[in-house]
Design a protein that fits this description.
The complex is a heterodimer of chains A (448) and B (555).
Chain A (H helix, E strand, L loop, with lengths): L1 E2 L3 E2 L5 E3 L5 E6 L2 E6 L5 E6 L6 E4 L5 E6 L4 E6 L6 E5 L7 E4 L5 E5 L5 E6 L5 E5 L8 E3 L5 E8 L2 E8 L4 E7 L5 E6 L5 E6 L6 E5 L4 E5 L8 E6 L5 E6 L3 E6 L5 E6 L3 E2 L5 E8 L14 H8 L2 E7 L3 E2 L16 E6 L5 E6 L5 E6 L4 E7 L6 E4 L6 E4 L4 E6 L2 E6 L10 E4 L5 E5 L3 E6 L6
Parallel strand pairs in A: 28-34
Antiparallel strand pairs in A: 1-41, 2-41, 3-4, 4-5, 5-6, 7-8, 8-9, 9-10, 11-12, 12-13, 13-14, 15-16, 16-17, 17-18, 19-20, 20-21, 21-22, 23-24, 24-25, 25-26, 27-30, 28-29, 31-32, 32-33, 33-34, 35-36, 36-37, 37-38, 39-40, 40-41
Chain B lengths: L44 H11 L5 H15 L15 H124 L5 E4 L16 H47 L7 H25 L6 H35 L3 H44 L1 H73 L2 H29 L6 H17 L7 H13 L1
Helix pairs in contact in B: 4-6, 5-6, 7-8, 8-10, 9-11
The chains are: A mainly beta (448), B mainly alpha (555).
Protein name (chain B): ADIP protein
Family (chain B): Belongs to the ADIP family.
Subcellular location (chain B): Cell junction, Adherens junction; Cytoplasm, Cytoskeleton, Microtubule organizing center, Centrosome, Centriolar satellite
Chain lengths: 448, 555
């Protein structure tokens, strides 16, 4: 495992291009495009204001930079550095901006979610989508980029509109039986749309591409409901994480629950492997101390090594009960992710913030639990193989695969608190992001 | 009848043995009635006389008669006098009175008997009743106590029941209350939300108007030049045709998805059907042959065979046919039937086996079980041993793995161990090589000795041959001469022998040790041959002497 030198970064805006050749990072108002393997600067662009959002187009030829305060979106071309494009929303304001799947249209959501403007880079046409819903996931594109689903709200009722992305024609418009739609997500096969309700109501509706309601699922009433969902890559399963600390798996044939995964504070099953991160006292040889201390020495002096130990079941985890009178409590299943081969599901129970739970989908059982020393910040699966990278806000990155578990210290001087990470599309490397810096981690083929 | 006592008349006559004092006190008194009932036995005539004479003597006849008369009249009998104040006795009336008295007496006796019987009966009845009364009283006491206890328990349980009911009711009420609260809050919340949302929508509309009205030049896109589409095609107008095309495309996508799924399901179905068929075949093969269960089989036999035939026919078509309801049902039904039969069969076998076990008379079974147990014990021991071994190995492995991570000294120690071993190995190698050298040397010397031996033998044979020839020649010449010559020759032989034997000895000593020089041997051989050549006559006894001495030396 090799690590690159750290580079400046602001706002956790580090993105790898979809073709995997370049990496875009933002420092204040500058956009820096680097080569992924060498981190050499390829292009440098300057924007008008502090950049708040960066996104690559799907063909990796363009990058959009959104500045919400000024209401401006600037688009840069990699092939032609002289080419420029600026979209000014003016008094309409800007809250969100994203590319369309064909990489030639930009969808801007104006302030107060008044409307979504579709700006085209190839024609002079502009389209408007009225009454978009102000929710977490209001726009969803199918994986093949053909269709777009937009959540709308008119007259205190929720609707979903389906558009054809090629000509932005409205395909279907139907109302949903939700109280207050919280999010929509397409299945990877592009034929089913999952629509779920606010956390006050546990309800998830499944619509077919042509707007028919396929099924409704309600697990219980009254208590807080759905917190997060995830589709399996083959569209066979839909995992629903809820505030009652359980994940329910629905199958695509009957849309009924086939499994319920619990996340208790004590794990007693002997077949589950629990990896516990323990601190390893680092051995420093006194003779090698020198002044001024070298970089490697300083990092090893001030950071503690850690390794994984296998704990014997039964194991108890640190359980946190959140304050009852606050909204959006830190409880329930907050993160869900399927592995790309559809064999594993990684979950995080916000009541047990230091643990990652890995479930074997073939057997529908809990396979592994990773217990960390600090709270989990994020985890992400390798896009090619069942390998999970976890970061917990310290300067270590943790990798799990069915072969085993490893904890790697990033050799960096000073503090490097990894808050987020993202894999390279080929699965050979990943970008580790902290508030101030980022670095690239290159993995060798045989590792883990 | 009231008390009547008879007058105790004093003892009068001499034969007073028969006189008995007759007291019968007849009282109507309580229980001790069975005691003193004395019967009046019929007195013998003699005693009667004496008895009767006791009452009436010759002096007091008249008095006794008048007394009798008085008694009889008071009892209601007619007077025994003819006239009331006369002294003539009415015999007839006396006899009548007597008869009457006798009859009464009989009656009284009978009555007395009856009364006595009744008395006895009543007594036993009374006893019986008393006993049963006592028992019943006891039972009654017990039952009363039991009842009291049960009543107490009943009361307690009832009160508990009431409490629980109350609690349940309370809980239910609370739950209901909470649910009501929740629902009311939810409706309130929804209502508020809707109100706020309407307000918000109004704001949005207003704002939208403002934004649209302003026609702000600012809302614009500035681009250097328009970029071509990603797929290289030109943009198209939105028409109905395009709408229709979009719908078509959408349905195509959906259909392809469904088709794919259906294909998968078909494949799965076919596999499962195959598996079921296989299972059916195997079950049929497992089941006992038809002769054992003629009844069942005969009933199902033709049906089954029909089904099987049908299924067999249809199976060929199944591969291409989509799931046909009837075929599927038939298959599942037939499998279910077979499975049931197999289950029955297995159950019967189980019963048989259990019966056999219950009997447990067969030595075979006992022994086999014992063997089985022994074997299992052995296996368990083996397993334990293996487990222990694995544990120890694991521990050792862990130690080995752990130690290098913890300390460098252990690494060094390990190196030391390795060095030791290596040095030991080297030592051994050295020794081995030395031994090898020695063995080589020995082998070489042995070979040389063998060669020498061979050569010596050859020489000796030659000598022998020569000597024999000489002997023969000498013998033939001596034969011609006198006997002396032979003796002298024999003496000569002896002297020669001695000399040769003396000569032999040093040679033998020379040939004894292995590490003799080869040149010496060759010299010896040559010398021998020369000797043989010179002393032919002495050659005869040479071989014997040589052999003996040689043998002696060598041994």
């Amino acid at each position: 495992m090799n690590f690159s030198e750290p580079c400046r970064l602001s706002g956790l805006l580090g993105r790898i291009s979809p073709d995997g050749r370049c990496l875009a990072s933002c420092v204040q108002y500058r956009l820096i495009v680097r080569d992924v393997s060498t981190l050499q600067i390829l292009q440098l662009y300057t924007c008008l204001d502090q950049i708040q959002y960066v996104e690559w187009s799907s063909d990796s030829l363009f990058i959009l930079c959104a500045m919400y305060k000024r209401g401006i979106v600037q688009v840069w071309s990699l092939e032609q550095p002289d080419w420029h494009c600026k979209i000014d929303e003016g008094s309409a304001g800007l809250v969100a901006s994203c590319w369309s799947p064909d990489g030639r249209h930009i969808l801007n959501t104006t302030e107060f979610h008044l409307r979504i403007t579709v700006w085209s880079l190839c024609t002079k046409s502009v389209s408007y989508i009225k009454y978009p819903k102000a929710c977490q996931q209001g726009i969803a594109f199918t994986k093949d980029g053909r269709y777009m689903a937009v959540a709308e709200r008119r007259d205190c009722k929720d609707f979903v509109s389906l558009f054809v992305c090629s000509d932005w024609q409205l395909l279907r418009h139907f109302d949903t039986e939700t109280q207050d739609l919280f999010g929509i997500e397409w299945a990877p096969n592009g034929c089913v749309l999952a629509v779920w309700d606010t956390c006050l109501e546990y309800k998830i509706l499944l619509y077919s591409l042509d707007g028919r309601l396929l099924s409704t699922y309600r697990a219980y009433e009254w208590s807080l409901g759905i917190k997060s969902i995830a589709w399996s890559p083959s569209s066979q399963f839909l995992a629903i994480g809820s505030y009652d600390e359980k994940v329910r798996i629905l199958n695509h044939v009957t849309w009924k629950k086939i499994a319920e995964f619990e996340h208790p504070a004590t794990v007693a099953n002997t077949k589950t492997v629990v990896y516990k991160e323990v601190e390893k006292p680092s051995a420093v040889e006194m003779e090698r101390l020198s002044f001024p201390p070298t970089r490697a020495l300083s990092s090893s002096l001030f950071s503690t090594q850690s390794k994984y130990d296998i704990s014997q079941v039964p194991v108890s985890f640190q359980y946190i009960k959140p304050v009852a009178d606050r909204a959006n409590p830190k409880m329930g299943i907050g993160m869900l992710a399927f592995s790309p081969d559809n064999c594993f599901l990684a979950t995080k129970n916000d009541n047990i913030p230091n643990a990652v739970w890995i479930w074997d989908i073939q057997k529908l059982k809990l396979s592994v639990v990773l217990e960390q020393l600090c709270a989990i910040q994020s985890f992400q699966w390798d896009p090619r193989q069942p390998r999970l990278a976890v970061c917990t806000g310290n300067s270590k990155v943790y990798l799990w695969s069915p072969a085993g578990c490893v904890s790697v210290q990033v050799p960096m001087e000073g503090d490097f608190q990894i808050v987020s990470l993202c894999w390279h599309p080929s699965g050979d490397s990943m970008a580790l992001l902290s508030k101030e810096n980022f670095c690239m981690c290159y993995l060798e083929r045989e590792e883990v | 009848m009231g008390d009547w006592k008879t007058v105790t008349v004093p003892v009068l006559s001499s034969d007073s043995k028969n006189i008995f004092q007759y007291t019968s006190e007849k009282k109507i008194s309580p229980p001790s009635m069975n005691s003193q009932v004395l019967r009046l036995p019929l007195p013998s005539s003699k005693s009667m006389h004496s008895f009767f004479s006791a009452f009436c003597t010759e002096e007091n006849i008249e008095q006794s008669i008048s007394y009798l008369n008085r008694e009889l009249t008071t009892l209601g009998f007619p007077s025994i006098y003819v006239e009331p104040k006369g002294k003539e006795l009415n015999l007839i009336s006396i006899i009548n009175c007597m008869n009457e008295l006798l009859v009464q007496q009989h009656k009284n006796l009978r009555a007395q008997e009856e009364v006595e019987m009744q008395h006895l009966k009543l007594g036993s009845d009374m006893d019986h009743l008393q006993n049963s009364y006592a028992k019943l009283k006891e039972q009654l006491e017990l039952s009363k106590r039991e009842i009291v206890g049960l009543q107490e328990r009943d009361r307690q349980l009832q009160s508990k029941n009431r409490n629980l009911h109350q609690l349940l009711k309370n809980e239910k009420d609370e739950v209901q209350k909470l649910q009501n609260i929740i629902s009311s809050r939810a409706t309130q919340y929804n209502h508020d939300m809707k109100r706020k949302e309407r307000e918000y929508n109004k704001l949005k509309e207003r704002l939208h108007q403002l934004v649209m009205n302003k026609k702000d030049k600012k809302i614009a896109m500035e681009v250097l030049n328009y970029v071509g589409r990603a797929d290289g095609k030109r943009g198209a107008w939105r028409t109905d045709k395009t709408e229709a095309r979009n719908e078509e495309e959408m349905y195509k996508v959906l259909l392809s998805d469904y088709e794919q799924r259906q294909k998968q399901l078909l494949v799965e179905n076919a596999e499962l059907k195959k598996v079921l068929q296989q299972m059916k075949k195997e079950i049929i093969s497992l089941l006992p042959p038809q002769k054992q269960k003629p009844k069942e089989r005969s009933e199902d036999g033709p049906v089954l065979s029909d089904l099987e035939e049908d299924i067999g026919e249809l199976n060929k078509e199944n591969m291409w046919e989509l799931s046909c309801e009837t075929v599927r049902e038939q298959l599942t039904n037939s499998i279910r039937k077979q499975w049931r039969m197999l289950k029955n069969h297995v159950e019967k076998l189980d019963n048989q086996v259990s019966r056999v076990h219950l009997r447990a008379l067969d030595d075979k079974d006992v022994i086999s079980r014992e063997d089985h147990e022994l074997e299992t014990e052995k296996l368990e021991l083996e397993i334990q041993q293996c487990k222990e071994m694995i544990k120890t190995q694991q521990q050792l492995l862990q130690q080995q793995l752990m130690s290098p991570c913890d300390d460098d000294t252990t690494l060094l120690l390990q190196d030391c161990y390795l060095l030791e071993e290596r040095e030991r190995l080297q030592e051994e190698w050295r020794l081995f090589r030395e031994q090898k050298k020695n063995f080589e040397k020995e082998r070489r010397s042995f070979t040389e000795a063998a060669i020498r031996l061979g050569l010596e033998r050859k020489a000796f044979e030659e000598d022998r041959g020569a000597w024999l020839k000489q002997q023969f020649l000498s013998m033939s010449t001596d034969h011609k001469h006198s006997e002396n010559v032979t003796t002298s020759s024999s003496d000569q032989d002896g002297r020669l022998l001695n000399s040769t034997s003396q000569q032999r000895k040093p040679h033998c000593t020379l040939s004894g040790p292995v590490s003799a020089e080869p040149c010496q041997t060759s010299q010896y051989v040559s010398r021998n041959s020369s000797n043989a050549a010179s002393k032919k006559p002495a050659g005869d006894s040479k071989p014997n002497q040589w052999e003996e001495s040689d043998e002696g030396e060598i041994e």
